[in-house]
Design a protein that fits this description.
The chain is an alpha/beta fold. It has one domain: Metallo-dependent phosphatases (Purple Acid Phosphatase, chain A, domain 2, 4-Layer Sandwich), CATH 3.60.21.10. The protein contains 13 helices and 21 strands. The strands form six sheets. The protein has a seven-stranded mixed β-sheet. A six-stranded mixed β-sheet has the order 11-12-15-16-18-17, covered by helices on one side. Strands 1-2 form a two-stranded antiparallel ribbon. α1 packs parallel to α2 and α1 crosses α12.
Length: about 550
């Protein structure tokens, strides 16, 4: 690390730099530092009045870190179906692709560097170190036990084992794997240069896979952290239901490298969602079976967090969650109630919903921290409870809560979708912030209450660690008396901009992960969001006199 307090994006902002190699379609560029990005004031609700005064120091109420979409992958798993990436131009596969990323073998090292960085940052608005980290799902990629163990070792500290199967690498980036759609970091195989080398100018790094998959010790996150269940924890590749046939294939010794003959491409998404083992029926290679690749259930995910030394115990999950098979809970601090939602649909599909039972639970938990709220019929309901600010967090956000395939616990009512959840939250004025992920894109949207447009909450979606810009977000709540500020600041992991060659250290592996992510053939500018989605001060009218709350 470069110092006690790593540089924030207010001091420097990273972006594509000088051309290192040329490809036929695009050049491969270095990552370079540019000018920092100051905080932009957003007062969409008019909370601070028409003059919009400059923010003073205010009174700190909370400082936390938002981390999402790590997608730690077993890069040799038999059931990831990476060969589908060859169909990237076919719109029928848009709901499935990408299945593999050229930087993913390095992701565990990027996560390790990220956690060491956020453990050392201080919030620029309050000067405080984060008191809590909030994750919003997709910590793992393919709902596997070994991926879950790597995630917990990284966050709690311990030995991280990215490798699986036999002693040799048996995955799609090997020099002898069929086809040329995958990057070959060790150099060209029998088929010649791969797509990433030929078309995008990607460099070779001989021995990289062996180094990246070696066991290493992680220090862990130095602050308490809360967990969240995402669609990649729940489903095969975040889309397919966990069928018995898939479970058998997952721990078995066959890894397919193509579609079966006569496959109906028009049914690709339906098959992937409902019967993913159908993708095991094509040509395959023998790989080393591994029982630790077994699929996990939601109860498995929760139970793995309930272990000694976790801070807070269970990372938010409780014994009640384990017994009930649920993954939603509350976590209270002196000033804020954090409410974790489980927005995943176990019936398949990447988008989410809220089952009816959970929606009723949410309404009760919200009422507990409101002195008054608006009832379902519009009338005011007084409770006698003390007021507390509310921060909701979940994997999916408003625009991706549109899954009608089914709920979590059975047919106990219609699932609640995005508009319904926003309407429910508007009835409870102490909700000031909703944190989520899933889209891998920085986005911040005001959600004004239609009944009172001067009030509402901010929905903050943070980009993925696995994809460019590979960042996390510091979130600070500051009481300014007449208004509340939610100050968000993007954080890059504190590693060299240029990885050393040969790539050896964890920091260099993390730096190479970021460099590769900056060069993948996607619109990385859109994923980073606009200035209004990154370093911002979001103002909102205080829902009650904030002087009642203790400071941070």
């Amino acid at each position: 690390m470069s110092g006690r307090h790593p540089l924030l994006t207010t001091q420097r902002r990273l972006g594509p730099g000088a051309v290192l190699r040329s490809g036929r379609l695009a050049p491969y560029r270095a990552v370079e530092a540019g000018a920092g990005e100051p905080h932009l004031i957003r007062d969409d609700f008019g909370a601070s009045g028409p003059a919009g005064p400059e923010p003073g120091p205010g009174r700190a109420l909370a400082c936390l870190v938002h981390i999402t979409d790590l997608q730690l992958a077993d890069v040799q798993s038999p059931t990831r179906f990476e060969f589908l990436n060859a169909n990237f131009a076919d719109r029928r596969y848009a709901g499935i692709i990408p299945v593999q990323r050229p930087q993913e073998a390095l992701t565990a090292h990027a996560v390790d560097a990220t956690l060491r960085t956020v453990s050392a940052v201080h919030g620029p608005a309050t000067g405080l170190p984060p008191q809590l980290a909030v994750t919003t799902g997709d910590a793992i990629d393919n709902a596997q036990w070994n991926e879950l163990q790597a995630f917990l070792a990284l966050f709690d500290g311990g030995v991280v084992s990215p490798d699986s199967g036999g002693p040799d690498y048996e995955g799609v980036e090997g020099t002898d794997w069929p086809g040329d759609i995958f990057r070959r970091p060790d150099g060209p195989g029998a088929g010649g240069p791969d797509f990433f080398r030929r078309e995008l100018g990607f460099p070779h790094h001989p021995g990289l896979l062996q180094r990246a998959l070696r066991e290493f010790a992680a220090a862990g996150l130095s602050i308490p952290w809360l967990s969240c269940f995402g669609n990649h924890e729940a489903l095969n590749q975040g889309v397919g239901t966990q069928t018995p046939g898939l479970a058998a294939a997952l721990t078995g010794g066959k890894k397919p490298f193509g579609l079966p003959e006569g496959f109906d491409h028009d049914q690709a998404l339906k098959e992937f969602t409902e019967r993913p083992e159908a993708f095991m029926a094509g040509p395959y290679r023998q790989v080393t079976p591994d029982p630790f690749r077994r699929p996990i259930t939601r109860r498995d995910f929760v139970d793995a967090h309930l272990r000694a030394g976790s801070r807070p115990f269970g990372h938010g999950f409780t014994e009640r969650n384990r017994l009930d098979g649920t993954a939603y809970y509350v976590h209270d601090t002196a000033a804020v109630r954090f409410i974790a939602l489980d927005t995943n649909c176990l019936a398949g599909g990447a988008s989410g919903c809220l089952d009816a039972k959970q929606a009723r639970w949410l309404e009760t938990r919200l009422a507990e921290v409101h002195a008054a709220y608006r009832g379902a019929g519009g009338a005011e309901v007084r409770t006698g409870h003390d007021d507390r600010l509310v921060v909701v967090f979940s994997h999916h956000g408003t625009d991706t809560l549109d899954n009608r395939r089914g709920g979590h616990a059975g047919p106990d009512g219609e699932p609640m979708l995005g508009a319904g959840l926003v309407a429910l939250l508007h009835r409870f004025p102490n909700v000031v912030l909703w944190l989520n992920g899933h889209t891998h894109t920085n986005t911040i949207c005001p959600r004004p209450d239609p009944a009172d447009p001067a009030h509402g909450f901010w929905e903050v979606t943070t980009c993925a660690v696995v994809d460019w810009p590979c960042q996390t977000r510091v979130v600070e709540l500051v009481d300014h008396g007449d208004y509340l500020s939610v100050v968000t600041t993007m954080v890059d992991h504190d590693t060299p901009l240029v990885p050393a060659v040969p790539v050896e250290t964890t920091d260099d592996l993390a730096a190479l992960h970021r460099e590769i992510a900056a060069n993948i053939p996607l619109d990385i500018t859109a994923m980073a969001g606009t200035a209004a989605d990154r370093n911002v001060e979001l103002r909102v009218a205080p829902p009650f006199p904030l002087k009642r709350l203790p400071g941070a």
